[in-house]
Specification:
Number of domains: 2
Largest sheet: 5 strands, mixed
Radius of gyration: 19 Å
Bound molecules: cobalt (II) ion
Strand content: 5-15%
Number of helices: 9
Number of strands: 5
CATH topology of the largest domain: Beta-carbonic Anhydrase, Chain A
Helix content: 40-55%
Distance between the termini: 58 Å
CATH class of the largest domain: Alpha Beta
Order of helices and strands: HHEHEHEHHHHHEE
Length: about 210
């Protein structure tokens, strides 16, 4: 049975008590300051709970989620999160985490009309277009979806690195690494795509901003 909103309040009380049982300063410590070293940019999918997957407590992970973990060049929401994370919280790692069998990726791959969300998913269609032959040569729809999940992560890692925010951080000598990971719903494990970017030399010249 699906829990009612009232049930959620009950569970919240239980959760807060369990935290206090192990550390009676748990909430008072967090009330003053958050010092996460990671920004997680992941999919909104309910099966991919950011903190839980990497065993992190409140205060340890700054999180932004949207459908299919996209970082569009001019998305004010996502860019505000990245700026706050890098310039105020001074996180040293930004992790783009996609997941296999992503519904957003699947929708971007078909030619049906899903309404407004197709405009959002056009960001993924751009990735599909750039890798069209590789994807279409794969034998099954599942393989196509999963490969596009990976290639989308690679592109979004680049998009983070292309922002004025990341470039300014590197210009100012700050440590900042952008990572690309994929989560597998089938076994609960993360896989590192090993596409880290940690300096401006790794981004295409066309996007490079070298001085004021
Ligand atoms: Co998804």
């Amino acid at each position: 049975m699906k829990p009612s909103p009232e049930e959620l309040f009950k569970r919240n009380i239980e959760w807060a008590s369990s935290k206090l049982a192990t550390d009676d300063k748990f909430f008072s410590k967090l009330n003053d300051i958050q010092t996460p070293n990671y920004l997680w940019i992941g999919c909104s999918d309910s099966r991919v709970p950011a903190n839980e997957i990497v065993g992190m407590d409140p205060g340890e992970l700054f999180v932004h989620r949207n459908v299919a973990n996209i970082v569009p060049h001019s998305d004010a929401n996502c860019l505000a999160v990245i700026q706050y994370a890098v310039e105020v919280l001074e996180v040293e790692h930004i992790i783009i985490t996609g997941h296999y069998n992503c519904g957003g990726i699947r929708a971007a791959l078909d030619d049906k009309d899903h309404g407004q969300i197709d405009n959002w998913l056009a960001n993924i269609k751009d990735v599909l277009k750039e890798n069209y032959k590789e994807i279409m040569d794969l034998k099954t729809e599942q393989l196509q979806v999963d490969r596009l999940c990976e290639l989308n992560v690679v592109e979004q890692v680049r998009n983070v690195a292309r922002t004025t925010i990341a470039q300014r951080a590197w210009r100012n000598g700050k440590e900042l690494t952008v990572h690309g990971w994929v989560y597998d719903l089938k076994d609960g494990l993360l896989r590192d795509l090993k596409v880290d970017i940690n300096n401006a030399q790794q981004i295409h010249e066309a996007y490079r901003i070298n001085s004021k």
